Amino acid sequence: MKQTTGSKFSIKPFFSTRNIRAFFVVAGGTLLATLIINMGMIVAARNFIYRDINEIPYRSVVLVLGASVHGTTLSPVLRDRVQAGTRLMENGKGGKLLLSGDHGQIHYNEVDAMRLYVLANAPAIPHEDIFLDHAGFSTWDSMYRARDVFEVRDLIIVTQEFHISRAVIMARRLGMDAVGYAVNQDHFSRGTQQFWRFREYFARVRAFFSIVFKPPPRFLGETIPISGDGRVTWD
Prior knowledge:
Layout: H1 17-45, E1 49-50, E2 59-65, E3 69-70, E4 73-74, H2 76-90, E5 94-100, H3 110-121, E6 130-133, H4 139-148, E7 154-160, H5 161-173, E8 177-183, H6 190-213
Parallel strand pairs: 1-8, 2-5, 2-7, 5-6, 7-8
Antiparallel strand pairs: 3-4
Helix pairs in contact: 1-5, 1-6, 4-5, 5-6
């Protein structure tokens, strides 16, 4: 009896020339897209960013973006931002001061630490002009809530150079007349600044999708007009 052999199956190697070529095409396209997003955001924001406080135009609101705190002690990054924001107010560049940050836990409160710093170091700023946004968990959330919760229409955004382009473009794409004050970051170590730039590269890509799809912030809530008394936001 003649025995027949089974069918022969050929398994195409995964690392074939065709697959490797496809991988590099996809990887190259992705890299190019991220580069375009980053450069586009930087260029688009360029005309709205200021580094000299004397050149900054007046806006009705100065928005200071949060960063880490240790109890009620501001991190060096946040201290620089808050100091810059108070200087803007003291120089008549803004009408109201909006401090936006993370207060998502009972024992972690960026905005109250910022408020206490302002009260201790800038007593000339009227208390009723200081507003707190307790749910500024991200740059996008801070911008969205500034517009929809606090009814801000024009503002100066205060943050470091590495972050300012993304923040300004987000605000402007949400329809606000936003300019940015780029806080000097040269006194930080080169390694720290390189890390910020690396992280920001990917953050701009994420911001691009937020701008396109406009997801709501984690929390929204009732409106608190920036034209009112900021002390209602302190609790």
